[in-house]
Amino acid sequence: MKKKDKHILKRMLDETKIISDKMNILNEKDFLDDLFVQRGIVMGMLIIGELAKNLDSELQQKYTDVPWRSIKGLRDVAAHGYASLEMQDIWVTATKHIPALEQELQAIMEKEKDMEDS
To answer: Sign of the CA dihedral 41, 42, 43, 44?
Structure first.
């Protein structure tokens, strides 16, 4: 794996952990009632999407189980159409898809490290 991609994946993983840590202490009502938290979570997702846009296409093609297109698409909506976001959808993404992404990114990092060590 290229050094640049390794750095990007690490930063994406860090962002997923920040989101997951916050979401683990909130219930849905608290999230939907807190505009400040909503904006922070969306910003984290925007950062993840922006980072994904900078990954080599080879890496993205190698790991097709990761929904790269959706990740980048959410970034675009968050950046250019924030007012159209439904916070109920963000809740689902933050509580279901972000933890799954965190696991997928961790697995990629481990697999790539094992390949380097071989």
So the answer is: positive
